[in-house]
Amino acid sequence: MAQAVEAIKHTFLDTKKVRDLQRDTVDAVKTSTGMTTDHGTAVLDTDNWLKATDGKSGPGPSLLEDEQARQKIMRFDHERIPERVVHARGAGAHGHFKLHKAIPEFSYAGVLNDTSRTTPIFIRFSTVQGSRGSADTVRDVRGFAVKFYTDEGNWDIVGNNIPVFFIQDAIKFPDIIHAVKPEPQNEIPTGQSAHPSFYDFISLTPESMHMLMWVMSDRAIPRSYRTMQGFGVNTFTLVNKDGERFFVKFHFDPELGVHSLVWDEALKLSGQDPDFHRRDLEAAIRNGAFPRWTFAIQVIPEAQEHDFEFDILDATKIWPEELVPKIPIGEIVLDRMPDEYFPETEQVAFCTSHIVPGVGFSDDPLLQGRNFSYFDTQLSRLGVNWQELPINRPICPVMNFHRDGQMRHRITKGPNYWPNRFGTVPPQADAFKTQGFIQDYPQKIHGVKQRLRSIKFNEHFNQAQLFYNSLSKWEKQHLIDALSFEMNKFDEGDIVDKMIDRLAQIDMELATQVASNAGGTAPKSGKENHGKMSKFLSQTAFPPAKPTIKSRKIAILVGDGFDLAAYEGLKAALLSGMAVIMTVGNRKSRVTSSSGKAISPDLHFEGDRSTGYDAVVIPGGKHVEALSKNGRVIHWIREAFGHCKAIGAFGEAVDLLKVALPLQQLQFAEDNSSDAVVCSYGVVTARAYSFPSALADLTIGEGEK
Ligand code: HDE
To answer: What is the value of pTM for the model shown?
Structure first.
């Protein structure tokens, strides 16, 4: 599918990491001085394998001696590396972090104190369950992994778009992942949790119920990576210059608000455009609508660790914002796409254990295990020297006596051991005099070695109830529909009934409805729902900072006879709002307007669908007559309406809406304007000048989907 043609001119920030990567970037077009072998010798013919021939009867066998041919084939044979064991499918982008509010009271980290710095970042978004080639819009958790290239070393926040996790102790990770990944006997299903192993496991693992509520909510079918919150999930610590320690959780809140697809859209998009999310990210960045998130922290002083009814080190729990408010401290912006997917997005490697001085770990047992696992997995994926790869290397000096191993890049002069007589590094004692060094916090520990969890870890349902109670009516219905959809995919009645029992621990109405839909036994009793709610859990709590069509993808439908002036006015208005515009015509070759002037659409109706857009607009003109009789166009409009999208119609195009939609229920506004923006929850009139804001209000409002 083509990208937006009308790109707004923009530039990315020239950060230290951008310059660092330039060292290893070649431009295959500009620097081409002719092809060479990998060892640098010029080659003349890379299309014909060297053959034995008698010069008369044509070529005979291909010769093994042909180094060029062997090299070409052999390099190709070894192009693949193991995909990530989870989060295999992902999309990345470069950007930067700006700190707006220094926090010396919590941490001495340079990156959290120096507001004059621009810290380069790389983010990789991902799905969890599917393989590298799976679809983007499946129901799944999304990875939200951020690498900060700070002046004090790389800091990775390897987060998700859901603030809690399925399990409390890292030792259970292989079990939950085996259960959710495709079944071992037939490798089914791809990119879905809708299968018996997953439900078998979670029905026997009550700690996963809170996360299940989030995964069955609309959070797991985001509209875009740009409209997701990011959460560090685990509890980390911050240490200030006085040696005081604070527990901390990290948050990223999108400027555009939190938005999701509707399930029908997500299902269709999986086939129509499996790359929907990565295409969307690229289109926004290339069009200058840079995705932005506020970076915020929640902080609990060490002395208050035990003041909560839940354990603040339990990754299956949030810290409700009513109890621990978020403190916004900065923003992250994505402004540059990778030049090449493999060396950047595929080879980027995150480690929760990569922190910077002033940031520390907690005893969160999920985090402790993660700190082992990420480094370990990079060894099998990328090899021991993975930190030297361009995308992974820090922008600050690296100096130590780690040596050798496969694919070592650096050449280090001097000794390879410490201590040495050359004094090649500052004496270790100095490290503790300055705050630019990692210091081990002198945490007191005591006790006996045992395999156990904290007592508060045993409560699993209060926050699952809190989340469910906090959803709007329509979000609750979506959650019930999602569970019913998933549990429709298997016949094991014992698993269904066990799940119903678990759901009854959250809410009886929820359990009863799912039981009825999924053919389970209606629950007789459950845990009483405490009825508490939080203001910060429903997606409706996260509208955009202000209504906007910025980066929203909008289709303009045209056929022969469209009104050129209306079309151009519309396009200009939408572009000035920084929307991403595609003109979709009855054919891709030239379509003639009523004035006789022709345009070339970007796409045609038959080759595209409304699902790829946030809104559809139709200028007036004679084309309406033919469009009203075109089944595909009617389907475009009805489908967009069904998916709660704004549809703008101008002049004669309002008649097209009347043919396609049940407009008798939708009253036009009183000023008798001949233009309308409609969607399933309202109609507003809109003349071209006010059209973008009308569209923004309806598109972004999300309403009662
Ligand atoms: Fe991960 N996770 N994870 N995870 N995770 C990986 O590391 C692991 C967990 C997350 O774009 C792997 O480099 C364990 C929570 C993201 O490259 C692996 C546990 C959260 C990514 C791994 C968890 C995440 C990964 C596979 C339980 C949200 C993709 C490839 C203790 C806070 C990073 C890799 C990217 C990837 C282990 C749980 C997020 C195997 C053992 C909780 C975003 O190391």
So the answer is: 0.94
